[in-house]
Amino acid sequence: MASLVDNYEQQYAVLTADITAKIGRIRVQSGGEKRAFVQDVDRQIEEAQELLEQMELEVRGMNGTARDRLRGRVESHRAELKRLTQEFQIAKKPKDDVTEITVEESWDNNVTEDQRKRLLDASERIERSGRTLQNGYRMALETEEIGSHVLKELHEQRETIQRSRGRLRETDAELGRGSRLLSGMIFRSLQQRIILAGVALVLIIVACIVIYYSFKS
């Protein structure tokens, strides 16, 4: 169960970090963009509430010191979410209607010293989670860059292979033409030899006839 609570806490940390960032954007946005951020934060606060409820259910099923320790962490998360909700309510109001209430005053009025320490611990975990996400994003970019480089090299190799195949086809065609030409030359040479042999045979026969009639006469 503790591992499940840790998983919920990681999701909660990422979610609250995103909520905090969007609250900062809401303060400086206006019009349609501000309404879009407000809708996103409303939805994310509901998701955070659901995560806290899931954590509370898991903690209730535990025994011993683990339950007390995790219960304190859940209370710290709930106090943090309450603070974020208050900041969100202030940020989404029109600037003319926002009262001069600082975050520090709201913090002091609603959070005890023990909860403040827990919230600071939670903030550190959120920062670590944020750094982990940034490192993961950086690694993803590096992997994408390496993949793009590999694809480029493969494309160049493919073009080289295609050019080599083209040259091989041209060479094969040249060899085919040379083979046909050589075959024709050999055929003509044999044909000429046969003709010469026939002429020689005819001459021999004629010579024999001439000699025969010469002796006979």
From TrEMBL:
This is Vesicle transport through interaction with t-SNAREs homolog 1A. The chain crosses the membrane at residues 194-215. It comes from Trachymyrmex septentrionalis. It holds the Pfam family V-SNARE_C. The keyword Protein transport applies. It comes from the Eukaryota. Belongs to the VTI1 family. GO terms for biological process: Golgi to vacuole transport; intra-Golgi vesicle-mediated transport; intracellular protein transport; macroautophagy; retrograde transport, endosome to Golgi; vesicle fusion with Golgi apparatus. It is found in: Endomembrane system; Golgi apparatus membrane. SMART domains: t_SNARE. It is a single-pass type IV membrane protein; Single-pass membrane protein. Interacts with distinct SNARE complexes that contain either STX5 or STX6. Interacts with NAPA and, to a lesser extent, with NAPG. Identified in a complex containing STX6, STX12, VAMP4 and VTI1A.
